[in-house]
Structures are given as C-alpha cells and as structure tokens.
C-alpha cells in the first residue's frame, strides 16, 4: 500500500472504526485512512450489502442499537461517528469497548443562535457534550452545507427537464467537499493535534443557490433555468423525502441566508495545510461518484 509522507504527527498505525462508512463523509474517510496506511474497520446496518475497498474490515453496527456498537468497536483505538441515537448509551458502549479517541461529525448549526436552528443545535450539542464528558480524546467537526446537497436538492428535479425550482435562490452557503471533512477527520483520529477542538469547516466561497445551479449546469452541459418557487410548494416537495423537522430547518435557514454572505472558515487550510476544494471541482467529483 502506498503511504503518504506526513508532517502532521499522524500515527498511521492507528486502528480506526468508521461508523457509517457507507455515507458520504464516512466513505471519503475510509479511503483517506486507507491511503494513509491505517487499519480500518467500517460498521453499517447491513455491511454485507456494501462493496468495500480492499483492506476494510466490515462489521455490523447501528447507532440506534447501542449494544451493537460495543462489538463493532472491540479492540479499536479511534472511532468516527455521526450524531444519531442516544448519546449516553453510545458513549457507555464505546467506553466499555476500550476506545480512547472519538471524532464526532457534528454541524455548524451548533454555532447558530437562530430559533430556526434550535432543534438541530440542541441535539448536536448534547451529543458533543456527552462525548467530551466521557473522558475520550475528542474532536467535534462542525461542517456547514455539503457540496453534495446539489445532488440531493437540485438534480432530482432535472429528471423531467432543465428547470430547478428554489424557494430562496439567492440564499448563500459555502459548501464543503466531503473529502475535505475526511482529511480533517483523519488527522483528528490519528494524532493529538485536534484534541478538544471543535472546528467549523466550510468551503472556500460564499455562493448563492443560483450560482450553484449554474455551476451544475456547466458540468452537466445543460442550460439550466431557475424558477422561484412558493415556500408552500417547496415544503410539500421536500416533505416527500425529508422529515418535517429538517424541512422547516432548511426553509428557515435558506430564508435567513438571503440576507448575509455565508461564513467562510479558515479551518480546513489551517488543519490540513491546503485550501478547501473549489465548488466546481468538488461537485464534478460528486457527480462522478454518483455515476460510477
């Protein structure tokens, strides 16, 4: 296995468990750890149904069934997990398994005092604090919007034409590439550099959803049009695929984001030594992953 030279104090002998390794960030993290020479175990609800990279040890693990996490983490030094399930029980199982280091995929909403983010802020902070109070060497990653949201919110509308309907086309985000999150997570899992830190992670540019759709059109080679959608229609469309709490969170945040440029964090560059990936490059990669 080819290993990268490291100047960041990373321990490439780390034995790591990635919970949710079939997801976007988890999948990118698995690849990042493998490329760095780490030993990687991956848990998911149905590991036998996934095609895993060579060198991965797949096991069953479900955050909604905390008892499964102890077995998944047995003999593991460092664990990456996302916010789901009941944190106290999950922490208990990780401690019982002998885990020393935990990196949590949290959210930028933990820094948002707006009422629209209250539910998401509260549940992520509760999870963060449970991990922090458990005695692990911990890091909580707080990314903003993902570049892959274009595939979630824009591309499904293109099945029947070239029109993308948006309730707030001028809302602005700084979408981040999941590979940049994975690079930060790999450092957190394999070194002491980020112990106790809770970095906010964003992409390099504040982009309106209108600009994001135009970039998508260029990559697809299709002249896309944007139609401003009534909030009620957007709510009904989103509710077909997303739980109500998150639909209201999205609509509220998008409305708020029409009034301010997106926050740009310096943390990806500070931690990894390289700037965050440009939106067009990240979206091209996400499209290629979808089509592979």
Write up what this structure looks like.
The protein has 292 residues and is of the alpha/beta class. The protein is 41% helix and 16% strand. The protein has eleven helices and eleven strands. It has helices at residues 24-35, 66-73, 87-97, 118-133, 149-154, 178-190, 209-220, 231-239, 244-256, 267-272, 279-291, and strands at 15-19, 39-44, 56-60, 78-82, 101-105, 137-143, 163-166, 172-173, 200-201, 207-208, 225-228. Helix 3 (87-97) links the parallel strand 4 and strand 5. Helix 1 crosses helix 6 (178-190). The model is unreliable at 1-7 (pLDDT under 50).
Name some characteristics of this structure.
292 residues, alpha/beta, seven-stranded parallel β-sheet, two-stranded parallel ribbon, 11 helices, globular, disordered N terminus
Summarize the structure.
This protein is of the alpha/beta class. The chain is 41% helix and 16% strand. The chain is built from 11 helices and 11 strands.
- Class of secondary structure makeup: alpha/beta
SSE series: EHEEHEHEHEHEEHEEHEHHHH
Please work out how many helical segments DSSP would assign.
11
The chain-level mean pLDDT equals 93
Major beta sheet, strand line-up = 3-2-1-4-5-6-9
Helix content: 40-55%
Biggest beta sheet summary: 7 strands, parallel
Task: List low-pLDDT spans.
Answer: 1-7
Strand content: 15-25%
Total strands? 11
Overall geometry comes to globular
**Rg, alpha carbons:** 19 Å
Taking the alpha carbons of the first and last residues, their distance comes to 23 Å
């Amino acid at each position: 296995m080819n290993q990268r030279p490291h100047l960041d104090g990373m321990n490439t002998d780390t034995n790591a468990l990635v919970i949710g390794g079939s997801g976007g960030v988890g999948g990118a993290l698995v690849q990042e750890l493998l490329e760095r020479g780490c030993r990687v175990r991956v848990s998911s609800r149905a590991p036998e149904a996934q095609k895993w990279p060579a060198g991965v040890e797949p096991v069953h693990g479900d955050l909604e069934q905390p008892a499964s996490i102890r077995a998944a983490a047995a003999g593991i030094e460092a664990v990456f997990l996302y916010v789901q399930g009941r944190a106290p029980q999950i922490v208990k199982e990780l401690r019982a398994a002998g885990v020393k280091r935990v990196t949590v995929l949290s959210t930028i909403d933990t820094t948002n005092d707006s009422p629209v983010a209250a539910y998401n802020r509260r549940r992520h902070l509760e999870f963060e604090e449970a991990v922090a109070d458990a005695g692990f060497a911990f890091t909580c990653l707080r990314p903003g919007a993902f570049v892959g949201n274009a595939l979630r919110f824009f591309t499904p509308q293109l099945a029947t034409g070239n029109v993308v309907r948006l309730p707030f086309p001028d809302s602005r985000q700084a979408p981040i590439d999941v590979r940049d999150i994975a690079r930060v997570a790999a450092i957190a899992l394999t070194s002491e550099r980020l112990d106790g830190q809770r970095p906010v992670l964003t992409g390099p540019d504040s982009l309106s959803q209108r600009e994001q759709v135009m970039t998508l059109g260029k990559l697809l080679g299709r002249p896309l049009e944007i139609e401003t959608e009534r909030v009620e229609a957007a709510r009904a469309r989103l509710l077909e695929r997303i739980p109500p709490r998150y639909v209201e969170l999205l609509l509220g945040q998008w409305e708020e984001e029409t009034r301010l440029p997106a926050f740009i964090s310096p943390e990806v560059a500070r931690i990894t030594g390289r700037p965050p990936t440009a939106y067009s490059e990240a979206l091209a990669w996400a499209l290629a992953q979808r089509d592979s």
